[in-house]
Design goal:
Helix 2 runs antiparallel to helix 3. By secondary structure, the chain is of the alpha+beta class. It has six helices and seven strands; from the N terminus they run ααβββββββαααα.
Length: 170
């Protein structure tokens, strides 16, 4: 088994050796250099191990619009609209060198049915992901430019020195 996958799930209280072996088979670690795009197959979900990623979409005019920054170990993300005709596709680019845990959704879903600790990780990760999305949308809709900037500084501490400012302004 890969130590990194086991270590991550052990940190989250998954300890059953059989489940860990199957998780290891369902996961791979993707290493990205700065400015490299994360491949996003439809059947995968992702958890950041380290580094910073920028999630972005294209607007109607073809301009990149930053949607989110993934910067904390254990933050989960996925493109839930991938493969649905007419829906926006989200891309994730490495702002810094990154390591990402790429998981087969179907296999992990099946394992979560057998392991309560893994089910808890799955539920918590999805909940936190949707809360981030809601918070981001709420800030964009309800705050003026100054308020959004202050919100960014609070929400993403230290990121102002790491990220191209054009990504923040978008």
């Amino acid at each position: 088994m890969r130590d990194e996958t086991v270590t991550f799930f052990n940190e989250k209280n998954v300890t059953d050796p059989a489940i860990l072996r199957e998780l290891d088979a369902a996961c791979e670690i993707v290493v990205l250099s700065r400015d490299e795009r994360l491949p996003m197959p439809e059947d995968r979900a992702f958890i950041l191990l380290d580094g910073t990623l920028r999630g972005w979409l294209l607007d109607r005019e073809g301009n990149e619009v930053t949607d989110d920054f993934i910067f904390k170990r254990g933050q989960g993300f996925a493109d839930f609209c991938a493969g649905r005709e007419g829906d926006a596709v989200e891309f994730f680019d490495a702002v810094t060198p990154c390591r990402v845990l790429s998981m087969n959704r179907v296999q992990v879903d099946e394992l979560a049915k057998r392991d309560p600790a893994l089910a808890t990780i799955q539920i918590t990760t999805v909940r936190e992901m949707y809360l981030r999305i809601w918070e981001h949308r709420n800030a964009i809709i309800t705050l003026d430019a100054r308020g959004r900037y202050l919100w960014f500084l609070e929400r993403y501490p230290g990121l102002i020195d790491t990220v191209y400012h054009k990504y923040i302004s978008s």
